[in-house]
Each structure stands twice: as C-alpha cells, then as structure tokens.
Amino acid sequence: MEEVRKASSSTNGHSHIPEMGSVSEVLQFKKLQERFLQQFEHIFPDKLAPRTVIIIPSITMDEEILSKISGINHYEERMLCMLMLLRMPRTNVIYVTSQPIDPVIIDYYLHMLPGITGYHALKRLTLLNCHDHSSKPLTQKILERPRLIQRIKDFLPQDHEAHMSCFNVTPLERSLAVQLQVPIYGCDPDLYELGSKSNGRKLFRECGLNVPPGFEDLKTEDDIINALTKLKEQNPALKKAVVKVNDGFSGDGNAIFSYKGCDEATDLKQWIKDNLQPALKFVAPDISYEVFMAKYKSMKGIVEEFLEGEIKESPSVQCRVTPTGHFDVISTHDQELGGESGQVYLGAHFPASNEYAVELGIMGRKVAEVLKEKGVLGRFAVDFISIKEKGQWKHYPIEINLRKGGTTHPFLMLQFLTDGMYDEEQGLYYTSKGHLIRYYFCSDNLRSDKYKGLSPHDLIDIAMVNDLHYDGSSQEGVMFHLIGALSQYGKLGVVCIGSTPQRAREFYAKIVSVLEKEC
C-alpha cells in the first residue's frame, strides 16, 4: 500500500493527484458519482449512445488470502462476459488485466456477439495489462504504474461518457477513479464495511431475518474462545462452529471448529482454550494458525453455529440498487459448496429451487431496501444456509457480498446472450425470444491434473470438434471461462444453459466426458 501512496504523490507530472484516502480525493469521488446519475439516466437507456466502459476485474482483497487461491490472476478473465457490451455499436470497452490474455480467448468471446462482426467489435476494444503476475490486487498494480493510467486516459474518446466496472470497490478503486476522472458503477468504499461478516449479521437482524446463533465484532483469540464456549453452553448438542474473518473470499478466511471430545471435559472453556489450535481446520490451504489469528486480529470476525441438517442447501439471492434509487432482485442460485469443510464455492444452479426461490427474493428485497437507505449502489448478493425440517424450509442469511461474485458473470452471460429477465415473482428466467424458460449450471472449479498442459487453442479446438458451444438458434449450450488457467492449473470455468435443469447438467456431463476422453 505504501508503494501506491508514493506513486499517487509522484511529482512526475502527477503532483495534482490527491493523496489516497485524503478529504480531497473523497470529495472528488463523490462528485464523480453524482455525475454518474445523469449518465445512467441518459446514456444507459440508449443503445446507440457513445460510451466507454473501463473494466477493472481486480479482486481487491487481502493479498495473503488471495495468494492461496489457485490461478487467482486468471479470475480476472471472469469479467470477460462484459465484452458482450460491444454488441452496442457505439460502445467502447477498455479491459485491463495483470497479464496479457491470449487472443484466442478474446476471439472466443467476440464470436458470441449477436448482430456484430468480430472486426467491428475488435476496433472498439482496448486490451491493456500490467505484465505483473504477482498476487497483489490488480488495481494496486495499476496505481503503481502512472504511465498505464495515462494510456487508459488516452484511449477515452472526447465525445464518450465513461465509467468503471469493477469486481469490488475499495479505496484503491476510488483512487483509480479519481485519477481517471470517471465514476464507478459500484458501492462507495466508505460503505464497504456494511458487507463484512459482522455487519451482515447486524443488518439481517435489522431486516427481521433469522441469523444463526453466534457473535460478531470479535478480535482476539480470547474473544473466539469465549464465543465458542457460549455457543456450546447455549446448545449442548452443537458439534461444530464456524470462525470467519470479516472479509474473506469464496470460503477462504473461514475455519471450522470441532467440539469432538469436549463432553468429557470438566471445564468447557479451558478445554476449548487447550484445543483451539488443533481443533480448528482452515478452508484456505497452507494457512497457518498464526497467520489466521493475525488476520482475525487485524480484520475482526465472527463465530457462529455450523448449521446441521439432513436436507441442507446453500442458496443465494442477487440484487441491484441503481443510481436512481430503484432496487430489484435480479437472480437466485443454489450454490454448490465443496472442499473438506464444505465451505468452498464450486458452482451454482440457476435459478434456485422452485420450493423457495420466490421466498429468497422477498428476503433479498428486505435487505436491498435497507442497503439502499444506507447509500449502497450496484450489485450485491446475500448467501443463505437453508434447512428443510418437517417439510418446511428455514432460511438463515449468513453473509452479504457487497460486490460482484461467482454467480455474476454466468448470469450476465445468460442475459447478454438471450436478452431475457428473471421474474422474481415466479422464480423463473424468461428469454426475450418466445419467452422461453432457461436454466443453467455454472462452475469456476472444473479441474483435474489431466487438464494441465491444455492451451487455450487446444480447448477451443476440442470444443469445436465436439460441438461444445452455445447455439444462438436454440438458446442452449455451453460457454467457457477461466480459460487461461487451464494449462498451468488444470482448472476451468463453464456455464451450461439448458431448457431444463437436467439438460443444463447434461451439457456439463458432456464437457467432463469429452475432456476425460481428450486427455
């Protein structure tokens, strides 16, 4: 962070740039955001309006946690779905990444553009990168490169309105917006803490929703021990609890504590104190107890019950607040979680089960209304744990993701390709063509060591030969993402769109079968 501050205050032609986090920078950002309202009202509805969208797909989170995620830099490719904006013939896109993206990947996305030739789209696309494969957040890398910032400015046509689209918005994205003098379609970083695990629990209670038993705003090892002790005293049958850092990602930052063996103890609190380290299992691989506790102390966190149930699901609802103050429910999903602890996001089914999709939407609206009143802008998601008991579902909200997430890019891809809309009152998605109902299964984590060594060119060739593509005439098929991670990490992302949930799953099974055969 100190390197960024030095870059921001450089006198190499940039002495006018306000210092990061200063009052001047914050005021400039708020003025830019006020200007965005006018852009949203007049430019967004006009598909022929000249505009430039600057895509900054930075996952701006704790660097140490990010470094534990396999192929993290390639997650920047997930927002390549935004290239579908090029279907509007007067829209330019500037896409910035840590490392160069293979041209065959860009061609793959442009080929799916409806009604626009690849040549026409390519003329309006600018790809820039930092040539930096470190695990630092992309936005930090950009801020450390004033010449790259100037290049972004140089590619902004004078007659275009421009805005930034980011994965999440932190003080780093605010600084970049001010230096570029463009607004962000996203939440003010001053409100970012509303999405922490602790504040999420408070906000859910404010909305009248049931949160799992637990405690928030914890900081020290003693706080964790006291919380674990109280949970067990309140519920003697409790087997496990979850310890979460306030700002984790995809389950990393979480740990599971097992009470196994504590029933024989005469002093429960002392037993927990003695067994905290050996009984705490971390979701992130290769993270030590000392590192986790240091993160916990600096970020704070929560402890809550690990909810058990024979029939248990992990749905989510995605909402959006526009600059005009309108809010709506844009999608629901049933998430697939995996890993040893069952805390790692692997993929999702869209929409969520018809047994509760509408109910999720109602709860999502309650959260959206409160967040709107607090000034939140843009997309966010609420994750739940849902348990079926005696034929009835009980939904427990567990966190707010005040950013784009793992379900954002698949849904955007579906919308761009079908020009449809999610009907929250029915819990179904309808395309614009014949009002067909569509479903999908998506995953960021289709992986196998057998896939290592497959280049983007290899994957595209395999897809073409085996008819693994999206068919615009039937509005079904498959799309790949995270393609750049395949060769080194053996992992890949997919979106499988079908006329039924079963058909979407069949597409996924076909992908797995073909890759097994080809490898």
Largest sheet report: 9 strands, antiparallel
Low-confidence stretches: 5-14
Estimate the strand proportion: 25-35%
Identify the CATH class of the largest domain. Answer: Alpha Beta
List keywords for this structure.
single chain, nine-stranded antiparallel β-sheet, alpha+beta, 519 residues, five-stranded antiparallel β-sheet, 3 domains
Can you give a write-up of this model?
By secondary structure, the protein is an alpha+beta fold. The chain folds into 3 domains: 185 residues, no CATH class; 93 residues, no CATH class; 207 residues, D-amino Acid Aminotransferase, Chain A, domain 1, CATH 3.30.470. Helix content is 34%, strand content 26%. The strands form 4 sheets. The chain has a 9-stranded antiparallel β-sheet, sandwiched between helices. Strands 5-9-6-7-8 form a 5-stranded antiparallel β-sheet, sandwiched between helices. A 4-stranded parallel β-sheet has the order 3-2-1-4. The longest helix has 20 residues. The protein is globular and about 75 Å long. The two termini are 43 Å apart. About 2% of the residues have low confidence.
